[in-house]
Design goal:
This protein has 484 residues and is α/β, with parallel strands linked by helices. It folds into three domains: 87 residues, Phosphorylase Kinase, domain 1 (2-Layer Sandwich), CATH 3.30.200.20; 219 residues, Transferase(Phosphotransferase), domain 1; 144 residues, HUPs (Rossmann fold), CATH 3.40.50.620. It is 38% helix and 15% strand. It contains 18 helices and 16 strands. The strands form four sheets. Strands 1-2-3-4-6-5 form a six-stranded antiparallel sheet, covered by helices on one side. α3 packs antiparallel against α6, α3 runs antiparallel to α10 and α16 runs parallel beside α17. It is globular and about 85 Å long. InterPro entries: Kinase-like_dom_sf, Prot_kinase_dom, Rossmann-like_a/b/a_fold, Ser/Thr_Kinases-Pseudokinases, UspA. GO terms for molecular function: kinase activity. This is non-specific serine/threonine protein kinase. Pfam families: Pkinase, Usp. Keywords: ATP-binding, Kinase, Nucleotide-binding, Serine/threonine-protein kinase, Transferase.
Length: 484
């Protein structure tokens, strides 16, 4: 049923139709009778209910109605109202001004070069941060694709169309009533193909598909229309992006193929980790995966096909539990106004924090005053090496670790901004560092970080005296002599 512009439904005046899709139609709307709008533009979404439409449309409408009242934040449209399911089902939500990723892809000519790697990384990071916002609310989108990703003019990403989504606190209507494989074929993760829903790493896979298309102009697994075609992603590797577009840098291929691993456990452990990599490409550790220019050999693919035939997928923990298992730990390492004892205490506290969090990623950060007389690259090289020296003695085997030099004359502000933009879970900072002499008059940097941080903060107060350090060093030398 197509609505007439100017008609009235439940106090909403229907405006122009802005979209007509396979599952829904969308109209701009406003309040009737001069009632002020809620501070943002609105749209009305109506599911298609013709004679040939499947049950997915109405079930998806119920799911989206449920989800939009359960999730919130800048990365989802704001909910306004809903119509009666038996009379006229509709949703009135915020109308997002911007461009979808699909529109951006459609605007690219086949003869044009692909977008620059830095632009792809920026867009991908925005999508990953939006997905992480959902996952922190125990929700998984499960239908991320270019048409469902829109960028506001300021670059913020908003996710659309929650009709296939999953929330840990609500019944999964789709899993109960419909086919096992639920999603859009080109972007579905392998675990979705076999009916597993609720793993946040499924959204990471879908982001990898979008990054692949941005980098190459092709879909990594095509757009299969059969169950057999869908199941190929359980065992098949896509062509390396660098084989299709030699301009793709190894770090970007490393990230893309990491997202597209068939086993969820082999992908980035959270969308926050993916966003971290996309925001820090110089820190990405490139291995054979990032350097490949040929597809995996037939024999390797065949062995994976055999394993996939008997593969068993375990239900995922709650998304928030999954995120808690793989935190990002940031340690603020001072480079002045400090002592060896303080640095030793920070190192010990970091070691203990990582020991309690086996899946943690470590980000070592120092803030340096900008100096126009000194080349920035030289400053970064020098202080990065200092951070690496400081890290020696911490067991980092099997962990992701990165080193960051921030140029700012506001140390606390730089640390807080870094923690917020990278979704840091824990900040480790010395309690007696950075401006100790001024703390009688103004808050110290650690005090401000502790008061304003968007996450937990570990203030390291106890630093061993030099006598204990000398004893520890002597013990280490004695042990080395015995082993030698």
């Amino acid at each position: 049923m197509r609505l007439q512009e100017g008609s009235l439904i439940d106090g909403f005046v229907i405006g122009p139709r802005v979209h007509a899709g396979a599952m829904a139609e969308i109209y701009r709307v406003r309040y009737d009778g001069g009632r002020p709008d809620p501070g943002f533009p609105m749209m009305m979404k109506l599911p298609r209910m013709g004679g040939g439409e499947g049950a997915e449309n109405l079930v998806g409408f119920e799911v989206e109605h449920q989800m939009l009242q359960a999730v919130h934040g800048p990365h989802v449209p704001r909910f306004v109202a809903a119509g009666d399911m038996h009379r006229l089902p509709y949703l009135v939500i915020e109308y997002i001004e911007g461009r979808t990723l699909q529109e951006m892809l459609d605007a690219l000519s086949p003869l044009q070069p692909r977008p620059a790697a830095v632009d792809i990384a920026r867009w991908g990071r925005a999508i990953a941060l939006a997905a992480h916002s959902l996952h922190r609310q125990n929700a998984v989108h499960l239908d991320l694709k270019p048409a469902n990703v829109i960028f506001r003019p300021d670059g913020t990403c908003v996710l659309l169309d929650f009709g296939l989504s999953w929330h840990a606190h609500y019944p999964d209507l789709l899993a109960a009533d419909l086919r096992p494989a639920i999603g859009s074929p080109a972007w579905m993760a392998p675990e979705q193909v076999v009916g597993m829903r609720g793993d946040p790493r499924s959204d990471v896979f879908a982001i990898g598909v979008m990054l692949y298309e941005l980098a190459t102009g092709e879909l990594p697994f095509g757009a299969p229309a059969t169950t057999g075609g869908l199941r190929q992603r359980l065992w098949m590797d896509p062509s390396p992006p660098r084989a299709l577009n030699p301009e793709v840098p190894p770090w970007l291929q490393e990230i893309i193929l990491h997202c597209l691993e068939s086993a969820a456990a082999n992908r980035p452990p959270s969308a926050a980790h993916l966003a971290f990599d996309l925001g820090n490409p110089q820190q990405v550790e490139v291995g054979a995966r990032g350097l490949r220019t040929r597809r995996t050999s037939f024999s390797s693919q065949f062995r994976r096909w055999i394993r996939a035939a008997g593969m068993h997928y375990e239900p995922s923990p709650l998304p928030t539990e999954r995120i808690d298992e793989v935190p990002i730990v940031m340690v603020a390492v001072p480079h002045h106004d400090t002592t060896d004892a303080v640095l030793y205490g920070l190192r010990q506290a970091t070691r203990r924090s990582l020991g309690l969090r086996p899946g943690a990623r470590l980000a070592c950060v120092t803030v340096v005053d900008p100096d126009p007389q000194v080349e920035e690259a030289a400053v970064h090289r020098y202080h990065s090496e200092q951070l690496r020296q400081w890290c020696r003695g911490i067991d980092l085997h099997g962990r992701q670790v990165s080193f960051h030099v921030l140029l700012s004359d506001d140390v606390a502000g730089a640390l807080l901004a870094y923690a917020a933009s990278n979704h840091v879970t824990l900040i480790v900072i010395g309690a007696a560092t950075h401006g100790l002499a001024l703390r009688r008059w103004i808050p110290t940097i650690p005090a401000r970080v502790a008061a304003e941080a968007p996450c937990s903060v570990l203030l390291v107060k106890d630093a061993p005296p030099f006598a204990l350090l000398r004893e520890a060093a002597a013990a280490e030398e004695e042990q080395a002599a015995v082993l030698g």
